[in-house]
Amino acid sequence: MVTRAFIGSYERRWHAEGDALRIDGTSELNQIDPKFAVLEDGRFVVTWVHKWFVGREQFTDIKARVLEARNGANDTLAGEAGHDRLYGGLGNDLLSGGAGKDVFVFDTKLNKRTNVDQIADFRYQDDSVYLENRIFTKLGAGTASKPKKFNSDMFTTGTKAQDAEDRIVYDKKSGALYYDQDGTGSKAQVKIATITNKAVLKHSDFFVI
Questions:
Q1: What angle is formed at CA 126 by the lines to CA 76 and CA 206, rounded to 5 degrees?
Q2: Which of 8, 80, 149, 189 has the lowest CB atom count within 10 Å?
Q3: What DSSP string runs through 15-81?
Q4: pLDDT for the residue numbered 94
Q5: What confidence tens digit (pLDDT) does each residue in 42-98 have?
Q6: For the chain, how long is the longest CA-to-CA vector?
Q7: Over the range 10-23, which residues count as b (16 or more CB within 10 Å of their CB) and which as e?
Q8: Residue 78 C-alpha from the chain's centroid
Q9: What φ, ψ does residue 123 adopt, rounded to 5°?
């Protein structure tokens, strides 16, 4: 999908379904220097300079729009060579960080059927998993600007929690990643993701935000 800006237009909107979303930053006449970026919380921001005239006088405005990008679709998100932060949002999404030190963020309501993401290329000691404390309520507190390191006793490997302290369970044989709010208590664990390359995972890969 390609979208361009022409004289007299002040905002561009786009929608992609099933294909990669590509933004053409071309602008014409009174729109200058458009920029496109992804914010830390997963929203998009578009900025540009707008020049206009009244008689012989020229005026300049700086325009910006912040756009909500999350939805319940089954998305495919791919990073490249940089240090990317990927938000799958709702849906069964496929996430690929590419090269660099990438962060995979889980911050939407859990559902073992409709909200289980796949992480295709997790790399131990390079990549990280961020867990939002408003969703994962038994992990303690942290923020996006100051992520809290995961306690080693809250992480275990295998198919289920081994003691009352375990909160994240990683089954390396299948790649399944689970959240268990009460460890060996009565509440069932919930699958949150599949690490499809079955990478090594340690407690040090996890942070609470």
A1: 80
A2: 8
A3: --SSS-------B-TTEEEEEEEE-TTS-EEEEEEEEEEETTEEEEEEEEEEE----SS--EEE--S
A4: 94
A5: 666 777 776 666 667 766 666 666 665 555 667 788 887 778 889 888 899 999 998
A6: 76
A7: eebeeeeeeeeeee
A8: 10
A9: -120, 115
Contact at 8 Å (CB) between 118 and 146? no
Ramachandran area for residue 148 (φ above 0: left; ψ -120 to 50: alpha; else beta): beta
Report field, pTM of the whole predicted structure over 0.70: no
Distance CA 76, CA 127 (A): 18
Per-residue model confidence as pLDDT tens digits over 171-190: 999 999 999 999 999 999 99
Q: Which of 72, 124, 118, 117 is nearest to 102 (CA)?
A: 124
Q: Positive or negative CA dihedral for 142, 127, 42, 75? A: negative
How many beta carbons lie within 10 A of that of residue 175, not counting itself? 18
CA–CA–CA angle 52, 56, 60 (5° rounding): 30
Q: Within 13 Å and on the Cβ side, how many CA atoms surround 133?
A: 15
What is the distance between the alpha carbons of residues 95 and 109, in angstroms, rounded to a whole number? 18
Q: Going by C-beta distance under 8 Å and a sequence separation of 6 or more, which residues neighbour residue 68?
A: 43
**Cβ neighbours around 31 below 10 Å, total:** 22
Distances (CA, A) of 61 to 3, 39, 106, 187: 22, 22, 37, 55
> Strand 168-171 relative to strand 155-157: parallel, antiparallel, unpaired?
parallel
